[in-house]
Amino acid sequence: MGQPESREGEQSVLPPGQRPQKGWPVTHYGPVPKFRPERWEFRVFGALAETGGRDRWNHEEFSALPYTTVVAGLHCVTKYSLRDAEWGGVAARTLLELVPPAPGVTHVMAWAEYGYSANMRLADFASESTVLATHRDGEPLTAEHGFPLRLVVPRLYGWKGPKWLRGIEYMTADRRGFWEERGYHNLGDPWREQRFSYQEEPGDGPEL
To answer: What is the CA radius of gyration of the chain?
Structure first.
């Protein structure tokens, strides 16, 4: 693993309606998956640019990708926020450089264990603060918090960053993910308090 690069993340000011949280609550849907390194694979698929480059890695190969850190908050839709955590891992921008999307890509779907998914605009995924995280505050993630890999998208609510991440799908049209199909806001911007689908305005996402 290379020398961490310092990157500026989100500011420590909390979004509206959020409260600072001491400690890190464990919140997720379903059981904690068992990590099997010999079976683990991360891949990028969907509307790829026709480069013929690499689009999948085993755990050892993924761990050797350029490592960076982002200092940013994590904002849960249940109204708690972690402030100024240091997330370490592979920058989303690095992944986009390694596996470029096709010109028509507008959104991505993050896929995790058990078929869990979360959609977001390409611009949100490509943000400087988005990281495919393996560490928090210099320590490897625990299994309950997403080891070996979770997506952290500080500019969106926490459900948009799945634990136990296994792949990224490039999409040329938006499609709702797991919680977005079950009443959560399609965009999930905490600064605009976009928590639930009934708050959506025309153009915010596909029809339910």
So the answer is: 16
